[in-house]
Amino acid sequence: METTNVTEGADTFTANVFLVEGARNVLVDAGAMAGVEDRVAERVDDLDAVVLTHQHGDHVAELDAVLDAFDADLLAYDDHPRRTDAIDDGDTVDIGDESFEVVHTPGHADDHVSLVSETTIFSGDVVVHDDGAFDDGSFGRTDMAGQSREELIESIQRILDRLPDSVERMYAGHGGEFHGNVRDVIERALERAERREPKYPDE
């Protein structure tokens, strides 16, 4: 299973968008970088599905362009005009060569999900490795309308409860990818979130 961040080096603000190649070519999120569909087409001829971690603009602004370029299914927790399949907590989604459990992880966004397999987690914006606020374990912002630090803390704990010890790769919506002891990174993020201090000085 090969995973590529197809928005790496983008000049505009965008979420990371991961193309996972394998038995089922899947894009995790669509991002906000114009031309992302061309980056995908450079690597694969066919795209089986797009799976959304959540529907904030930096994750979905270019979704129509991707879906117009490929005859791909759209899997999302929340309703969307182009959604072909609803996903819910506990569902299983095939991505690349692995099966991923859908974990509903609200707090940063009500419709947020994380995707967990035996080796890999796509954590969206709930927990990341590095994002400018913290390195080696950070958490999604919760200072905007409709967000909740308490729900986010519960979501990170839910990930830990359902995370196999064999997971060694973390691909988050922002910051760099991480290979190593993913549980330790997530536990540090949880500890920082539980302090309930502002993530950013102006928060």
From TrEMBL:
Record-linked Pfam families: Lactamase_B
List the CDD domains hit by this protein, alphabetically. metallo-hydrolase-like_MBL-fold
Enumerate the cofactors the protein uses: Zn(2+)
Residue ranges occupied by any Metallo-beta-lactamase domain in the UniProt entry: 14-174
Which UniProt key words apply to this protein? Hydrolase, Metal-binding, Zinc
Protein name (Swiss-Prot/TrEMBL): Flavoprotein
* Gene Ontology MF terms: hydrolase activity; metal ion binding
Q: Which PANTHER family match?
A: HYDROXYACYLGLUTATHIONE HYDROLASE GLOC
Organism superkingdom: Archaea
